[in-house]
Amino acid sequence: MSIALEHVCDLVVELSPPHEMGAALSGTRRIIPIVGGTARGARINGRILNVGADWQTVQVGGVAQLDARYAIETDDGAVIEVVSQGIRHASADVAARIVAGEAVPPSEYYMRTAIRLDSGHPDYAWAARSIYVADGGKVGNTVRLAVYRVG
Question: What mean pLDDT do residues 99-127 have?
Answer without folding.
Answer: 92
